[in-house]
Design goal:
The N and C termini lie far apart (59 Å). The protein is of the alpha+beta class. Strands 3-2-1-5-8 form a five-stranded mixed beta sheet, with no helix packed on it. The longest helix has 41 residues. The structure holds dinuclear copper ion (CUA). The site of dinuclear copper ion has 9 residues, from loops.
C-alpha cells in the first residue's frame, strides 16, 4: 500500500511508463505486431498456440490444486496401511481417467493445433513471380544485391510495399540468421548453401531486422533495415542507383584521392570506381543511407567521422581498422562519402 502513497507515486511512475511502454510505443521488432502476410500468419498461429497451451496449463493447475487440497482429507479417512486407497477413485473410474485424460483429451487439443500449424506452413510458401534480392551475411553486416537491376548495397533492403519479394540468402563466413520479426520468421544463412525466402510489407515503412543466430562478438550489432516504399518511389530509388557518382567540389576530389590511397578502396567498392574491394560493405550511395555500421548508428556527419576514425570503438572485433588520417584529410574523406547520394 505504501508503494502507491502520493509521495512515492512519482518515483515509481517512470517504472510503469517503461513497462507500459512495451504496449504503447510503435513496435520496432515485435513478431506480435505483424506488418506483412507471412508475419500475420505466424502471429495468428502464435496466438492460437498460446491460447491452447494456456487452457491446458490452467486445467493442469486446477487438477493439481484439487489433488493437493482434497487428497489429505480422503487419506485420513481411508485405510492407508494395506497400500490400497479405496476412496480415491474418480466417478468415471481409473481407466476412464487414463483413456479420457491421457488419450482423448490430448487428441482433441493437439489435432486442431497441428492442423493450424500445417495451414501456417502452407501460407508461408515462397512466391514464384517476385522481385529477387540476394542477401549475404558477413561478420557482421549484410551484403544486399539486386541481381536483375545490377544494384549492390549494404545493410538496407529497399522493397516495393504490397508486393512479395523473393530472397536468396547465403553466408560468406559463419551461420547467420535472417530475421525481420514484423515481416516473416527466421531463415538461416549457411555457408555453401542457398536458402530461398520471402518477405512482403503491407504498407510503406521501415522494418528493423536482426541477425537471429549467434555469430561472434558483434552478433548483437548485426542489424539492418527493410525500407518499404510505394512502387513509384521504389522505381525512382532503383533508377537513382544507376547514376555514376563523381566527386564534384575540390574537397570531394581531395576526399576521393584519400579514399583511393589511404586503404579504403582495398576493402570497399563504390559504383564506377576501380579497383573495387569486396571485403567490407559497398559504399555506393552511402550518403543516402539512414544508418551506419549495420544499423548501429544514425548516418550523420559526426557519426561517420567518428566511425571512420575508430570503428573498433563502436564495433570491437570488426574487420575495419582505425584510420590514421589528419583532421583535414578525414573531413575531406567524409565530405566525399557523404556526397555519394
Ligand atoms: Cu550474424 Cu548473428
Amino acid at each position: 500500500m505504501a508503494l502507491f502513497s502520493a509521495g512515492r507515486l512519482h518515483r515509481v511512475a517512470p517504472l510503469f511508463a517503461v513497462l507500459l511502454g512495451g504496449c504503447a510505443v510503435e513496435p520496432v521488432q515485435s513478431m506480435l505486431h505483424p506488418a506483412g502476410p507471412a508475419a500475420a500468419a505466424i502471429a495468428r498461429l502464435w496466438w492460437i498456440m498460446f491460447s491452447g497451451f494456456t487452457a491446458v496449463f490452467v486445467l493442469v493447475m486446477i487438477l493439481l490444486l484439487r489433488a493437493v487440497w482434497k487428497q489429505p482429507a480422503r487419506l485420513s479417512t481411508t485405510a492407508v496401511g494395506d497400500g490400497r486407497d479405496a476412496g480415491s477413485n474418480p466417478p468415471w473410474g481409473r481407466n476412464g481417467l487414463i483413456v479420457g485424460g491421457g488419450v482423448i483429451l490430448p487428441i482433441l487439443v493437439l489435432t486442431p493445433l497441428y492442423i493450424f500449424s500445417l495451414q501456417t506452413s502452407a501460407a508461408l510458401q515462397s512466391p514464384v513471380e517476385a522481385l529477387t534480392v540476394r542477401v549475404v551475411g558477413h561478420m557482421w553486416w549484410w551484403e544486399v544485391r539486386y541481381p536483375h537491376q545490377g544494384i549492390v548495397t549494404a545493410n538496407e533492403i529497399h522493397i516495393p510495399a504490397g508486393k512479395p519479394v523473393r530472397l536468396e540468402l547465403a553466408s560468406f563466413d559463419v551461420i547467420h540468421s535472417f530475421w525481420i520479426p514484423r515481416l516473416n520468421g527466421k531463415r538461416d544463412m549457411i555457408p555453401g548453401m542457398e536458402n530461398v525466402f520471402w518477405i512482403e510489407a503491407d504498407k510503406p515503412g521501415i522494418y528493423r531486422g536482426q541477425c537471429g543466430e549467434y555469430c561472434g562478438t558483434q552478433h548483437a550489432n548485426m542489424a539492418f533495415e527493410v525500407i518499404a516504399l510505394p512502387q513509384d518511389e521504389f522505381d525512382a530509388w532503383v533508377a537513382a542507383r544507376e547514376a555514376r557518382q563523381r566527386p564534384a567540389s575540390t574537397t570531394e576530389r581531395r576526399g576521393f584521392k584519400i579514399f583511393m590511397t589511404a586503404g579504403c578502396v582495398q576493402c570497399h567498392a563504390v559504383r564506377g570506381v576501380q579497383p573495387a574491394g569486396n571485403v567490407g560493405p559497398d559504399l555506393s550511395h552511402l550518403g543516402s543511407r539512414r544508418m551506419l555500421g549495420a544499423a548501429l548508428l544514425p548516418n550523420t556527419r559526426d557519426n561517420l567521422t567518428a566511425w571512420i576514425a575508430d570503428p573498433q570503438a563502436f564495433k570491437p572485433g570488426s574487420k575495419m581498422p582505425r584510420t590514421e588520417l589528419g583532421s583535414d584529410d578525414l573531413q575531406a574523406l567524409v565530405t566525399y562519402l557523404e556526397g555519394l547520394k
